[in-house]
Amino acid sequence: MLKFIRSLYFGKTVFYALFGISILFLISFWFEALYSITWTLTAVMGVLIFTDIIALYSKVSINVDRVLPEKFSNSDENTVLVTIQNNYGFKIYSEIIDEIPVQFQKRDFLKTLEIPAYKKTSFEYLLKPLKRGEYIFGNLNIYISTILRLAKRRYIFNKDQMVKVYPSFIQMKKLDFMALDQKIDLHGIKRIRRIGHTMEFEQIKEYVRGDDVRTINWKATAKNNQLMVNQFQDERSQPVYSVIDCGRMMKMPFEGLSLLDYAINSALAFSNVALKKKDKVGMLSFSNKIDKLQKASSKLSQLNRIMDALYNVDTEFYDSDFSLLYSRVKKHLTHRSLLMLYTNFEHMSALQRQLPYLKAIAKQHLLVVIFFENTEMTKLTHITPKNVSESAHQTIAEEFVHNKLLMSKELQRHGIQTLLTPPKELSINAINKYLEIKARGLL
User: What is the pLDDT of residues 197-227, one digit of tens each?
Assistant: First the structure.
């Protein structure tokens, strides 16, 4: 009985009708002829409500299912599918309220549908998570009513479903084509001019117009009595590491996503491209301690290992220890590797404190320091100030932007590759930097 009471609701029509009947009873105090008519309307109303309840609580019911993907992609639109099967012999009117995870702070979800008798229907909605971790869906509530709309029956389905939010594998798939040698022209993607060639020999072939005459193999030419040239290819199976700073400076948010999450999404997309280029990929995360270290490998399963490692990476309010990073890199990375270091410096003094360790790492490895342009400051430099206060803000913003450029120049002066990029363009620019290094044969 208690279960029946908890599942029974009444529509707005019932309350409007009760209000009208109350008014009629009040008026009948002066006009007695309305008294019997009002009681008749009350009885008819009661019969209709009873009939409506009987129809809704017959032995048939509905089947509803919330279909979630195996995992969500962070910072991307993810699809949730809801299917409804009407087993009643009449058309039903439904109101669906899904209890979306608390991380979205969305409490106004409502979907209304008309479902014909014995028919199945479905609808989709999109969710965009901005934080990695476990997301718990609550009840999937559906309220059904007949054409009378007097009573409603509540059904509850799919209690406490959980889905994990991983780094942006959707972005990774979108940038997957950048591993191809022949890339089409797209906005944000640079064509890298190859300077010279790497020294990994591939084959000897016949000379054709356009081949570099410096690669002519004179011994093979004499033997075959025609011009033969050496053909080289990009060096492969080189160790490439994504090194992610998890210190407090990476907690800074841009458009709802922290710098750390931008770095993690970029590291995953970059690792995928590097694997497709036949290089070995690995990752390392650090703050005041070394959090994760995944040794470089070219196995196909390596990308899943990196994704699982990045899933649990988080930032705390600690200062990053670059001396510890240097000691661990020296101890564990014995071969010369490409290190893509995702970090952030807001002041020149912060860079100067860490510069000795960065220079020490760069002596043994090819180091690329990736840090972030403060886009809000950049916007301030382009406004037209209307008062003294705005002019002061613009002056400070210009100083911040100038300091970022000075930091980039300072790193380059010490032979360290740099990449200063807006957070939203990080993945594209990081992959372009990697392709540039491959094309120039710097590693």
Answer: 555 566 788 888 878 878 888 888 888 888 8
CA distance 273 to 269: 7
What is the rounded CA–CA span in Å between residue 283 and residue 332?
12
The range of the structural domain enclosing residue 39 comes to 2-56
- In the chain, which residues have pLDDT < 50? 182-187, 192-196
- At residue 180, the pLDDT reads 64
Cβ pair 98, 137 in contact under 8 A: yes
pLDDT of residue 179: 65
3-state secondary structure 71-94: EEECCCCEEEEEEEEECCCCCEEE
Same domain (yes/no): 104, 157? yes
* This prediction's pTM: 0.80
Q: How far apart are CA 436 and CA 442, in angstroms?
A: 9
Of the three residues 181, 212, 233, the one that is the final residue of a domain is 233
CA distance 406 to 400: 10
- At 226, which amino acid appears? Q
Judge contact between 258 and 244, C-beta under 8 A: no
- Where does residue 119 fall: left (phi above 0), alpha (psi -120 to 50 degrees), or beta otherwise? beta
What does the pLDDT read at residue 233? 60
Q: Note the pLDDT tens digit of each residue in 266-321.
A: 999 999 999 988 899 999 999 989 888 999 998 889 999 999 988 888 887 888 99
Split into its structural domains, the chain has a count of 4
DSSP-assigned letters across all residues of 44-77: HHHHHHHHHHHHHTSS--EEEEEE--SEEETTS-
Among candidate residues 262, 272, 354, the one with its CA nearest the CA of residue 305 = 272
Pair 420, 339 in one domain: yes
If one counts every other C-beta atom within 10 angstroms of the C-beta of residue 181, the result is 7
User: Which residue, of 17, 36, 56, is where some domain finishes?
Assistant: 56
State whether 122 and 221 are in the same domain: no
- The pLDDT value given to residue 165: 94
